[in-house]
Amino acid sequence: MDAVAIEVFLQTLISGLLLGGLYALIGIGMTLIMGVMKIINLAHGELMMVAMYMAYWLFVLFHIDPYISVFIVAPVMFFFGMAIQRFLINPVLRVESILPENQVILTVGIGMVLANLATLFFTSDYRSTPVKYASDAWYLSDYWRDSPIELSLSVPWTVSFTISVVITVALWFFLTKTDTGKSIRATAQDLEAAMLMGVNVERMRLVTFGLGAALVGAAGCLFIPIYYLYPALGGRFTLIAFVITILGGLGSTVGAIIGGLILGVFESMTATYVGMGWAPVGRFLIFIAALIFLPGGVASLLRSRRLGK
Amino acid sequence: MGRPQLLEVRDINVFYGDLQVIWGVSFNVRQGEIVCLIGANGAGKSTILKTISGLLRPTPGEIVFEDERIDQLRPYKLIELGIVHVPEGRRLFTEMTVEENLDMGSLKGESRQRREQSKDMVFELFPRLRERRRQIAGTLSGGEQQMLAIGRGLMARPRLMMFDEPSLGLAPILVKEIFNVINRIRDEGTTVLIVEQNVKQTLSISDRAYVLENGRIVLEGTGQEMLGNAHVKTAYLGV
Ligand SMILES: Nc1ncnc2c1ncn2[C@@H]1O[C@H](COP(=O)(O)OP(=O)(O)OP(=O)(O)O)[C@@H](O)[C@H]1O
Ligand SMILES: [Mg+2]
After folding, report:
1. Residue B139 distance to chain A (closest CA, Å)
2. Residue pairs between chains A and B whose CB atoms are closer than 8 Å
3. Which runs of consecutive H residues, i.e. helices, occur in chain A?
4. Do the domain assignments include residue A69?
5. In terms of CB atoms within 10 Å, which of A113, B108, B127, B195 comes out highest?
6. B1-82+158-239 CATH
7. Could you report the per-residue pLDDT of B43-72, keeping only the tens digit for each?
């Protein structure tokens, strides 16, 4: 391989990992909801879209940087998610005769309503957020004069990635070190046993849906400096989150992180080596491959290593 | 016996959907006793324990703990009152560590404050758990898992501890150890309600016993009386 080929490969890998870090954040939100509620939240991408409009308007109207908006939008999305759970999903959960699938169908409906409302209020125009640093980058040659290859790191992509890593680490602390976090994991692992331990599982459902919405909301803010915004983008990100959740193993957070990174790298590689428009096809292929060859997702590999099975 | 009553189950009926599985069951447990419910597979033993711990509701029927009606309370209220249920099949959080499982046993009120102290007590009772405190619960052996399930229950500092088939699937030597532990738990002041199919050993540690058949109580008496009862002998002891 010559220097150019290596350069292209490494550059593609870097973009893939940066994208994957953001994907992981989206996937973790969905997988947490999946674990505790046993439903796929098919409004996940639409929640992100809502958060992105918040961050967009905060920037346009109040000149608040999207990276600051994370701390405003994520809490708002937390309460928005809890409200959806409390007033829409819970009532359906309570009606006994209805099949569990109905909650999933409900989330589809919520997603559609959100997308349509966004079109009504904001039109279907594509918008980009004119942050000053949008096309800033760090170059390897600025730091290492004699570098045989040239690599660049986009400033907004890197900052977004870093914040998403920080959020993920904070989430990990929350889930492993606090009683509420442990209760969420316990509820996901064995609902009845969690109830017997005194976990208020209804409250855990509220917190979890709120948390999932807050995480995807944070991801939305992180996408704002690097991505177009339009009302229909939710569907695409719902699909991405869904693929990550399957790839990671339903309900596994670590699996979702690895799944997000794999998907990011895979899409980036497809775009470079096959062609720009082929990323969705790559996504679809990896989704099918995961279903066929790794039905339990990355989590099943991690588990079998740990259990020595 | 002049011991004060701790738990009273009054004429409960329990359904799964339209299917009634418990028919007018009444019994009581006094403070400091070991009381057992014995019965064949499907008799309704687990259903009764689940009803006491709030996972199921009696329709109709009443359950009284000390002087309080508890049959409409949520499970998380019951654990605050000191009622702990060690469920059938352990039901550990298999992807969490031993220590995290113990933490889950002490979420509420005073038990939360005494968590570290309680852990030491559990580790003293089951030294093997101390060695494995950072191990994932799903990787423990069956016996260790049962110890952890009991330990997790003890973390709540229970006043009434209910065991659902604690000896299930264990080797005889471990069964003996588990029964010793249950005896010790009672000696340290916790009242015990136990459901078992290991009839002989259970009766020999029980103060009183009830026999459940097809969702109805058909016999009651002291542990010793039951060991001598002709019906119990033929139906449950195989002699
Ligand atoms: N979730 C359920 N839905 C419908 N029927 C159930 C359910 N759980 C138990 N049953 C039925 O209720 C009856 C009593 O079950 P239960 O589990 O209480 O029996 P058990 O005495 O604990 O038996 P075992 O010794 O096998 O554990 C059984 O006939 C069982 O089939
Ligand atoms: Mg049972």
Report:
1. 6
2. 70
3. 3-37, 44-62, 66-84, 90-94, 101-122, 140-143, 155-177, 179-189, 191-196, 201-223, 233-248, 253-273, 279-293, 297-307
4. yes
5. B195
6. 3.40.50.300
7. 999 999 999 999 999 989 999 999 899 998
